[in-house]
Design brief:
Blueprint (H helix, E strand, L loop, with lengths): L5 E5 L3 H13 L3 E5 L2 H10 L4 E5 L7 H11 L5 E5 L4 H9 L4 E4 L4 H16 L6 E3 L2
Parallel strand pairs: 1-2, 1-3, 3-4, 4-5, 5-6
Helix pairs in contact: 2-3
Length: 135
């Protein structure tokens, strides 16, 4: 499966999904967007991605719920977790379950750009960094 330059966005808020899509398109990436964890799994079974960005709080399967499954389906894909309800506990759970980076909302897009480029550079050299950026 070829990843091209495609990023999977898992975000239940339609406005936030659109903002993230625009951001990644401006950065030169293709995007696929889904509104929940179940839809994310359907995409991940059939398609490889360069990076997955997931919100934490969503109906059904949460971002934390889907992290181990993403790791099983695509072990090398970097995963960025974003949340409006950040805490040290959520941050820790995210990394334990397989997140590569963590970012609190409201998203500061310059920080997301830093995470994007550092994470993709690290994943290319197979050195996974666990950077935390909080607002």
């Amino acid at each position: 499966m070829e990843t091209h330059k495609k990023i999977l966005i898992v975000e239940d808020d339609e406005e936030m999904r659109a903002l993230l899509e625009d951001f990644f398109l401006e950065e030169g990436f293709e995007t696929e967007s889904v509104s929940d964890g179940s839809e994310a799994f359907r995409k991940l079974v059939h398609e490889s991605f360069l990076l997955v960005l997931t919100d934490v709080r969503m109906p059904g399967l949460t971002g934390l719920d889907i992290l181990p499954g993403i790791r099983k389906l695509q072990p090398e894909v970097p995963i960025v977790v974003v949340t409006a309800f950040g805490s040290e506990d959520i941050r820790e759970k995210a990394f334990i379950r397989g997140a590569t980076a963590y970012l609190e909302k409201p998203i500061q897009f310059y920080k997301l750009r830093e995470i994007l480029h550092e994470t993709l550079s690290s994943s290319k050299s197979l050195v996974k960094r666990k950077d935390t950026y909080s607002v």
